[in-house]
């Protein structure tokens, strides 16, 4: 397997994955519509990896653009990141989410079928588990009705790929991400701050940088050790490396579709994340306890035995590394 198309490859997880792909010798073509990324990220990726790649500024929903790419290149596989991913935004604008996330996948699948490209890594999410009662969640944990249109697009995406793969020489791996955080240790790439952050870690770093006045911890009355929610935070570089492992595994796997939890297997409360940030970076964070945020689940973290065993992958970075790299990236943004 040599040449890979990465959709959304200038985005947060996409850019880190392109670095890992280039670093181990894959040739990469990226299609990105710059909806949630910037063209300048391309040069930063190439600087880190020491290798170049081709960029097509375009949308996977644009069949003509995709067709031209698949005519120009013979792809051995595709990693599909291009999708909207803000839970709150999806509640306010469900049609935009179904149009972009679901129709975009269908557009990609039909072009892949036409050009006989038969390996797909799909960006899914632990959000498909909803508020699971048995923890840690395994890949056999019941999929529950999604809490948001965003979550529904991930469940639909998995179902569409499963149906598409039946009776075909088509193979796909569904990666259910937990909470991706942090940035590349070089601090050259990370999560671009576009608007007010919904997620915890960018809000922490922007508060520490003085961009935000104060972090609000959404609820301290949950049934957890310190009353705040538990999540499985995973370093974005660890997550990126899991995609490379998945590509290698995909082409040789005996069945058509397989699914993997990609987390650390460890849960941290919000207060533990704050303390880890303060400790490793030597800063005091200005935060207060506020009311719960609607839609938040109390706790979720991954059983990673399947991904450890079959992909030969496990997370290497711990929460202190994640907080250190997140802060270095934030400080680099101020320069
Ligand atoms: C984490 C914890 C908040 C902000 C979402 C999506 C998920 C994935 C990651 C795409 C929660 C608390 C947060 C703040 C806080 N996205 N928090 N104050 O909601 O677990 O997951 O993003 O794939 O699909 O659902 O992540 O970072 O928003 O929240 O207290 O200002 O931090 O209540 O407990 P979440 P998050």
Explain the layout of strands and helices.
Blueprint: E1 3-7, H1 12-23, E2 27-32, H2 41-49, E3 54-57, H3 63-72, E4 77-80, H4 87-92, H5 94-114, E5 119-125, H6 149-165, E6 171-177, E7 179-181, H7 200-208, E8 215-218, E9 230-231, E10 233-235, H8 236-252, E11 257-262, E12 268-269, H9 270-281, E13 287-290, H10 305-310, H11 319-334
Parallel strand pairs: 1-2, 1-4, 2-3, 4-5, 5-6, 6-11, 7-10, 8-13
Antiparallel strand pairs: 9-12
Helix pairs in contact: 1-2, 1-8, 3-5, 5-6, 7-11, 9-11
The chain binds UDP-4-deoxy-4-formamido-beta-L-arabinopyranose (WQD).
Using brief descriptors, characterize the structure shown.
single chain; 335 residues; alpha/beta; seven-stranded parallel sheet; two-stranded parallel ribbon; 11 helices; binds UDP-4-deoxy-4-formamido-beta-L-arabinopyranose
- Tell me about the largest β-sheet: 7 strands, parallel
Cα radius of gyration in angstroms: 19 Å
Q: CATH homologous superfamily of the domain at 3-182 and 234-263 and 305-315, by name?
A: NAD(P)-binding Rossmann-like Domain
Q: Helical proportion?
A: 40-55%
Number of DSSP-assigned strands:
13
Instruction: Walk across the major sheet and give the strand order.
Output: 3-2-1-4-5-6-11
Spell out the helices and strands N to C: EHEHEHEHHEHEEHEEEHEEHEHH
**Helix vs. strand class:** alpha/beta
